Amino acid sequence: MVSLIKQLPFQRIYFSTMNPNNARALSSTAKAMVTKDWSAAQYLKFEDERTLPVRDLLSRVPLQAPKRVVDLGCGPGNSTEVLAARYPSAEIVGMDSSPDMIKKAELRLPNVSFSVDDLTTYSPQPSTDLFFSNAVLHWLKKDERIRVIKRLIETQSPGGTFAFQVPDNMMEPSHVLMREVAATGPWASTLSDSDRDDFQSPQEIYNHLKPISSEVNIFRTEYHHSLEDHQAIVEWVKGTGLRPYVDPLSPQDKKAFLREYLKSLENAYPKTVDGRVLLRYPRLFVVAVKK
Ligand SMILES: C[S@@+](CC[C@H](N)C(=O)[O-])C[C@H]1O[C@@H](n2cnc3c(N)ncnc32)[C@H](O)[C@@H]1O
Protein backbone atom coordinates (compact mmCIF):
# COMPACT_ATOMS: atom_id res chain seq x y z
CA MET A 1 0.00 0.00 0.00
CA VAL A 2 1.36 3.40 -0.93
CA SER A 3 1.74 5.75 1.98
CA LEU A 4 0.71 9.34 1.35
CA ILE A 5 1.42 11.12 4.60
CA LYS A 6 1.46 14.81 3.85
CA GLN A 7 2.03 16.88 6.93
CA LEU A 8 0.17 20.02 6.14
CA PRO A 9 -1.38 22.27 8.73
CA PHE A 10 -5.08 21.70 8.95
CA GLN A 11 -7.94 23.00 10.93
CA ARG A 12 -11.51 23.47 9.83
CA ILE A 13 -14.07 25.24 11.88
CA TYR A 14 -17.56 26.42 11.05
CA PHE A 15 -18.68 29.72 12.40
CA SER A 16 -21.24 31.35 10.18
CA THR A 17 -24.05 30.83 12.71
CA MET A 18 -21.85 31.39 15.73
CA ASN A 19 -22.48 34.46 17.79
CA PRO A 20 -20.31 37.36 16.61
CA ASN A 21 -18.16 37.45 19.75
CA ASN A 22 -17.23 33.81 19.45
CA ALA A 23 -16.70 34.12 15.72
CA ARG A 24 -14.29 36.98 16.33
CA ALA A 25 -12.44 34.78 18.81
CA LEU A 26 -11.55 32.22 16.14
CA SER A 27 -7.97 32.19 14.98
CA SER A 28 -7.20 33.67 11.59
CA THR A 29 -6.08 30.22 10.39
CA ALA A 30 -9.44 28.80 11.32
CA LYS A 31 -11.26 31.61 9.54
CA ALA A 32 -9.25 30.96 6.41
CA MET A 33 -10.22 27.29 6.30
CA VAL A 34 -13.91 27.21 6.95
CA THR A 35 -15.97 24.20 6.06
CA LYS A 36 -19.35 22.78 6.99
CA ASP A 37 -20.34 22.34 10.59
CA TRP A 38 -19.92 18.96 12.24
CA SER A 39 -23.05 16.80 12.16
CA ALA A 40 -24.01 15.62 15.63
CA ALA A 41 -26.42 13.08 14.08
CA GLN A 42 -23.69 11.51 11.91
CA TYR A 43 -21.25 11.47 14.83
CA LEU A 44 -23.76 9.77 17.13
CA LYS A 45 -24.31 6.84 14.75
CA PHE A 46 -21.44 5.15 16.61
CA GLU A 47 -21.97 6.69 20.00
CA ASP A 48 -21.28 3.57 22.06
CA GLU A 49 -17.97 2.88 20.34
CA ARG A 50 -16.90 6.52 20.44
CA THR A 51 -17.71 6.81 24.15
CA LEU A 52 -15.61 3.77 25.18
CA PRO A 53 -12.34 5.75 25.23
CA VAL A 54 -14.08 8.45 27.32
CA ARG A 55 -14.63 5.86 30.05
CA ASP A 56 -11.12 4.44 29.66
CA LEU A 57 -9.54 7.89 29.93
CA LEU A 58 -11.65 8.92 32.90
CA SER A 59 -10.78 5.70 34.74
CA ARG A 60 -7.16 6.92 34.82
CA VAL A 61 -7.93 10.41 36.17
CA PRO A 62 -6.77 10.46 39.80
CA LEU A 63 -9.20 13.16 41.04
CA GLN A 64 -11.86 11.95 43.50
CA ALA A 65 -13.94 15.10 44.07
CA PRO A 66 -13.10 17.91 41.65
CA LYS A 67 -15.10 21.10 42.09
CA ARG A 68 -14.96 22.25 38.49
CA VAL A 69 -14.59 20.14 35.35
CA VAL A 70 -14.43 21.40 31.75
CA ASP A 71 -15.12 19.11 28.79
CA LEU A 72 -13.05 20.65 25.98
CA GLY A 73 -14.58 19.84 22.59
CA CYS A 74 -17.58 18.24 24.28
CA GLY A 75 -19.32 17.38 21.00
CA PRO A 76 -22.94 16.27 21.44
CA GLY A 77 -22.46 15.82 25.20
CA ASN A 78 -21.67 12.09 25.29
CA SER A 79 -18.33 12.68 27.02
CA THR A 80 -19.87 15.36 29.27
CA GLU A 81 -22.53 12.88 30.40
CA VAL A 82 -19.86 10.41 31.54
CA LEU A 83 -18.07 13.20 33.45
CA ALA A 84 -21.33 14.29 35.12
CA ALA A 85 -22.06 10.71 36.18
CA ARG A 86 -18.65 10.25 37.76
CA TYR A 87 -18.61 13.66 39.47
CA PRO A 88 -22.23 14.41 40.45
CA SER A 89 -21.21 17.18 42.88
CA ALA A 90 -18.90 19.00 40.48
CA GLU A 91 -19.73 22.02 38.36
CA ILE A 92 -19.45 20.62 34.82
CA VAL A 93 -18.95 22.89 31.83
CA GLY A 94 -18.79 21.94 28.14
CA MET A 95 -17.35 23.91 25.23
CA ASP A 96 -17.13 23.16 21.51
CA SER A 97 -16.66 25.15 18.31
CA SER A 98 -19.61 23.46 16.58
CA PRO A 99 -23.04 25.05 16.98
CA ASP A 100 -24.73 21.78 15.94
CA MET A 101 -22.83 19.80 18.56
CA ILE A 102 -23.59 22.33 21.29
CA LYS A 103 -27.29 22.36 20.38
CA LYS A 104 -27.41 18.56 20.84
CA ALA A 105 -25.41 18.73 24.08
CA GLU A 106 -27.77 21.33 25.57
CA LEU A 107 -30.79 19.17 24.78
CA ARG A 108 -29.11 16.16 26.30
CA LEU A 109 -27.86 17.78 29.51
CA PRO A 110 -30.03 20.82 30.30
CA ASN A 111 -28.34 21.35 33.67
CA VAL A 112 -24.85 21.69 32.25
CA SER A 113 -23.55 25.01 30.97
CA PHE A 114 -22.33 24.78 27.35
CA SER A 115 -20.73 27.37 25.10
CA VAL A 116 -19.68 27.69 21.47
CA ASP A 117 -16.00 28.51 21.76
CA ASP A 118 -12.72 27.85 20.02
CA LEU A 119 -10.02 26.01 21.94
CA THR A 120 -7.24 28.14 20.55
CA THR A 121 -8.64 31.24 22.25
CA TYR A 122 -10.72 29.71 25.05
CA SER A 123 -10.17 31.27 28.43
CA PRO A 124 -11.54 29.21 31.30
CA GLN A 125 -12.27 30.29 34.84
CA PRO A 126 -9.12 29.92 36.95
CA SER A 127 -8.53 26.81 39.06
CA THR A 128 -10.43 24.32 36.96
CA ASP A 129 -9.65 20.98 38.59
CA LEU A 130 -10.05 18.85 35.48
CA PHE A 131 -9.70 19.64 31.80
CA PHE A 132 -10.95 16.65 29.85
CA SER A 133 -10.70 16.38 26.10
CA ASN A 134 -11.74 13.28 24.21
CA ALA A 135 -11.00 13.03 20.48
CA VAL A 136 -10.50 16.75 19.90
CA LEU A 137 -6.90 17.98 20.03
CA HIS A 138 -5.87 16.25 16.80
CA TRP A 139 -8.17 18.70 15.00
CA LEU A 140 -5.90 21.59 15.97
CA LYS A 141 -2.86 22.50 13.94
CA LYS A 142 0.18 20.64 15.21
CA ASP A 143 1.94 23.70 16.63
CA GLU A 144 -1.22 24.89 18.39
CA ARG A 145 -1.94 21.73 20.39
CA ILE A 146 0.83 21.88 22.97
CA ARG A 147 0.41 25.65 23.25
CA VAL A 148 -3.29 25.19 24.08
CA ILE A 149 -2.63 22.40 26.60
CA LYS A 150 0.14 24.32 28.39
CA ARG A 151 -1.86 27.55 28.47
CA LEU A 152 -4.78 25.76 30.10
CA ILE A 153 -2.60 23.87 32.59
CA GLU A 154 -1.08 27.21 33.63
CA THR A 155 -4.53 28.34 34.83
CA GLN A 156 -4.84 25.29 37.13
CA SER A 157 -3.78 24.88 40.76
CA PRO A 158 -1.25 22.20 41.73
CA GLY A 159 -2.91 18.78 41.52
CA GLY A 160 -5.20 19.96 38.71
CA THR A 161 -5.39 17.43 35.90
CA PHE A 162 -5.40 17.65 32.11
CA ALA A 163 -6.59 14.42 30.47
CA PHE A 164 -6.90 13.86 26.75
CA GLN A 165 -7.29 11.13 24.14
CA VAL A 166 -6.60 11.35 20.43
CA PRO A 167 -6.94 8.77 17.64
CA ASP A 168 -3.62 7.25 16.60
CA ASN A 169 -4.97 5.96 13.31
CA MET A 170 -3.19 7.91 10.58
CA MET A 171 -1.48 4.73 9.38
CA GLU A 172 -4.59 2.54 9.54
CA PRO A 173 -6.03 1.42 6.15
CA SER A 174 -9.17 3.51 6.84
CA HIS A 175 -7.05 6.69 6.84
CA VAL A 176 -4.27 5.77 4.43
CA LEU A 177 -6.94 4.91 1.86
CA MET A 178 -8.86 8.15 2.25
CA ARG A 179 -5.61 10.03 1.55
CA GLU A 180 -4.90 7.80 -1.43
CA VAL A 181 -8.35 8.31 -2.94
CA ALA A 182 -8.02 12.05 -2.31
CA ALA A 183 -4.65 12.21 -4.04
CA THR A 184 -5.50 10.14 -7.10
CA GLY A 185 -8.97 11.26 -8.23
CA PRO A 186 -10.07 14.24 -10.33
CA TRP A 187 -10.55 16.10 -7.01
CA ALA A 188 -6.81 15.87 -6.13
CA SER A 189 -6.06 19.58 -6.49
CA THR A 190 -9.19 20.61 -4.53
CA LEU A 191 -8.13 18.32 -1.68
CA SER A 192 -4.40 19.00 -1.77
CA ASP A 193 -4.37 20.54 1.72
CA SER A 194 -7.00 18.37 3.38
CA ASP A 195 -4.67 16.04 5.29
CA ARG A 196 -4.65 16.24 9.07
CA ASP A 197 -1.37 16.93 10.87
CA ASP A 198 0.13 13.85 12.51
CA PHE A 199 0.04 13.97 16.30
CA GLN A 200 3.07 14.52 18.52
CA SER A 201 4.79 11.29 19.63
CA PRO A 202 4.47 10.10 23.25
CA GLN A 203 8.06 11.22 23.89
CA GLU A 204 7.37 14.70 22.50
CA ILE A 205 4.22 15.00 24.61
CA TYR A 206 6.08 13.85 27.71
CA ASN A 207 8.95 16.25 27.13
CA HIS A 208 6.57 19.19 26.70
CA LEU A 209 4.40 18.43 29.71
CA LYS A 210 6.76 16.97 32.31
CA PRO A 211 8.42 20.28 33.28
CA ILE A 212 5.03 21.60 34.48
CA SER A 213 3.58 18.31 35.73
CA SER A 214 4.22 16.10 38.75
CA GLU A 215 3.27 13.11 36.60
CA VAL A 216 2.51 12.43 32.97
CA ASN A 217 0.87 9.07 32.23
CA ILE A 218 0.65 8.01 28.62
CA PHE A 219 -0.96 4.86 27.28
CA ARG A 220 -2.24 3.52 24.00
CA THR A 221 -5.18 1.20 23.38
CA GLU A 222 -6.05 -0.58 20.18
CA TYR A 223 -9.80 -1.11 19.86
CA HIS A 224 -11.21 -3.58 17.34
CA HIS A 225 -14.77 -2.57 16.51
CA SER A 226 -16.94 -5.19 14.84
CA LEU A 227 -19.00 -3.27 12.28
CA GLU A 228 -21.82 -4.51 10.09
CA ASP A 229 -20.02 -4.07 6.77
CA HIS A 230 -17.60 -1.85 4.82
CA GLN A 231 -20.24 0.82 4.36
CA ALA A 232 -20.30 1.12 8.16
CA ILE A 233 -16.60 2.12 8.09
CA VAL A 234 -17.53 4.85 5.61
CA GLU A 235 -20.37 5.99 7.87
CA TRP A 236 -18.03 6.02 10.87
CA VAL A 237 -15.38 8.22 9.26
CA LYS A 238 -17.98 10.42 7.55
CA GLY A 239 -18.71 11.76 11.04
CA THR A 240 -15.04 12.65 11.64
CA GLY A 241 -11.91 11.97 9.57
CA LEU A 242 -13.54 12.01 6.16
CA ARG A 243 -15.10 15.45 6.59
CA PRO A 244 -12.08 17.41 5.27
CA TYR A 245 -12.09 15.29 2.10
CA VAL A 246 -15.77 15.26 1.23
CA ASP A 247 -16.95 18.63 2.55
CA PRO A 248 -15.15 20.65 -0.17
CA LEU A 249 -16.54 18.49 -3.02
CA SER A 250 -19.61 18.98 -5.22
CA PRO A 251 -22.42 16.47 -4.55
CA GLN A 252 -21.42 14.58 -7.69
CA ASP A 253 -17.71 14.36 -6.76
CA LYS A 254 -18.60 13.49 -3.21
CA LYS A 255 -20.62 10.51 -4.44
CA ALA A 256 -17.77 9.36 -6.71
CA PHE A 257 -15.21 9.83 -3.92
CA LEU A 258 -17.26 7.76 -1.49
CA ARG A 259 -17.73 5.04 -4.12
CA GLU A 260 -13.96 4.82 -4.71
CA TYR A 261 -13.24 4.87 -1.00
CA LEU A 262 -15.73 2.09 -0.28
CA LYS A 263 -14.19 -0.03 -3.04
CA SER A 264 -10.72 0.39 -1.57
CA LEU A 265 -11.96 -0.52 1.93
CA GLU A 266 -13.50 -3.72 0.57
CA ASN A 267 -10.03 -4.80 -0.57
CA ALA A 268 -8.30 -3.79 2.66
CA TYR A 269 -10.66 -5.22 5.30
CA PRO A 270 -11.45 -8.95 4.94
CA LYS A 271 -14.83 -10.06 6.22
CA THR A 272 -14.90 -11.86 9.55
CA VAL A 273 -16.45 -15.28 10.11
CA ASP A 274 -19.86 -13.70 10.78
CA GLY A 275 -19.79 -11.59 7.61
CA ARG A 276 -18.88 -8.37 9.42
CA VAL A 277 -15.65 -6.30 9.37
CA LEU A 278 -13.23 -5.42 12.16
CA LEU A 279 -12.20 -1.78 12.30
CA ARG A 280 -8.89 -1.53 14.15
CA TYR A 281 -8.77 1.79 15.96
CA PRO A 282 -5.67 2.71 18.01
CA ARG A 283 -5.92 5.66 20.39
CA LEU A 284 -3.40 7.55 22.50
CA PHE A 285 -4.23 8.68 26.05
CA VAL A 286 -2.46 11.26 28.22
CA VAL A 287 -3.11 12.24 31.84
CA ALA A 288 -0.96 15.07 33.23
CA VAL A 289 -1.16 16.27 36.82
CA LYS A 290 -0.02 19.83 37.45
CA LYS A 291 3.05 20.32 39.66
C1 LIG B 1 -14.71 13.74 17.55
S1 LIG B 1 -15.67 14.96 18.34
C2 LIG B 1 -15.49 14.56 20.07
C3 LIG B 1 -16.74 14.78 20.86
C4 LIG B 1 -16.74 14.27 22.30
N1 LIG B 1 -15.70 14.91 23.08
C5 LIG B 1 -16.57 12.77 22.41
O1 LIG B 1 -15.87 12.34 23.32
O2 LIG B 1 -17.15 12.00 21.65
C6 LIG B 1 -14.58 16.32 18.14
C7 LIG B 1 -15.19 17.63 18.58
O3 LIG B 1 -14.14 18.60 18.62
C8 LIG B 1 -14.69 19.84 18.28
N2 LIG B 1 -13.61 20.75 17.90
C9 LIG B 1 -12.76 20.65 16.86
N3 LIG B 1 -11.92 21.69 16.83
C10 LIG B 1 -12.24 22.47 17.90
C11 LIG B 1 -11.74 23.69 18.41
N4 LIG B 1 -10.73 24.32 17.83
N5 LIG B 1 -12.32 24.21 19.51
C12 LIG B 1 -13.35 23.58 20.12
N6 LIG B 1 -13.86 22.42 19.68
C13 LIG B 1 -13.32 21.87 18.59
C14 LIG B 1 -15.64 19.50 17.14
O4 LIG B 1 -16.59 20.50 16.94
C15 LIG B 1 -16.24 18.18 17.63
O5 LIG B 1 -17.44 18.36 18.32
UniProtKB/TrEMBL annotation:
Membrane-crossing residue ranges in chain numbering: none
InterPro entries: Methyltransf_25 (IPR041698), SAM-dependent_MTases_sf (IPR029063), Trans_acon_MeTrfase_C (IPR023149)
Biological-process GO terms, alphabetical: methylation
CDD domains, per database record: AdoMet_MTases (cd02440)
Domain Methyltransferase per the UniProt entry, residue ranges: 69-160
Keywords of this entry: Methyltransferase, Transferase
A Gene Ontology molecular function term of the record: trans-aconitate 2-methyltransferase activity
Source domain of life: Eukaryota
Protein name, entry field: S-adenosyl-L-methionine-dependent methyltransferase
The organism of origin for this protein: Aspergillus avenaceus
